[in-house]
Amino acid sequence: MDQRLSLVTLGVEDLPRARAFYESLGWKASTASCGQVCFFQTGSMAVALYPRDALLTDAGMTDANPRPGGITLGINVAMREAVDRELAVVLARGAKLLQAATDTAWGGRTAYFADPDGHPWEITWAPMFPLGPEGELHLP
């Protein structure tokens, strides 16, 4: 299997509300989006919004208890100050604060928020992981 992640699909309770939230952040929906799913190009990969119940049905997980979870989605930024700036933007558009921006023991800065469906996102400045010209993460 190729070492690659191409698409992250977020199960959402209200697709129009979720789409409006991400579009309010400046994300542009792909023309491949329709009434049942919304796609956003995010660098070399994409994020999809899809009704949660339909996602669980498609994955054969309708009887899952507890519901799937246990992940965070990460956005790395190029400068320390960008963590606070980006956090302020998402909070102003309806995100819920999970963890205020703080300096880390490993020399970076990080903050956590949840989108309207509760998906946890992390905004991180990690000086040891430089970003390329298109914002792509480069691991050592």
CATH topology of the largest domain: 2,3-Dihydroxybiphenyl 1,2-Dioxygenase, domain 1
Query: Proportion of β residues?
Result: 25-35%
Return the CATH class of the largest domain.
Answer: Alpha Beta
Biggest sheet strand line-up: 4-7-6-5
Structural account:
With about 140 residues, the chain is an alpha/beta fold. The longest helix is centred in the middle third of the chain and has 13 residues, at about 80-90. The strands form two sheets. The protein has a four-stranded mixed beta sheet, covered by helices on one side. A three-stranded mixed beta sheet has the order 1-3-2. It folds into two domains: about 1-60, 2,3-Dihydroxybiphenyl 1,2-Dioxygenase, domain 1 (Roll); about 70-130, 2,3-Dihydroxybiphenyl 1,2-Dioxygenase, domain 1, CATH 3.10.180.10. About 20% of the residues lie in helices and about 30% in strands. The protein is globular, with a radius of gyration of 16 Å.
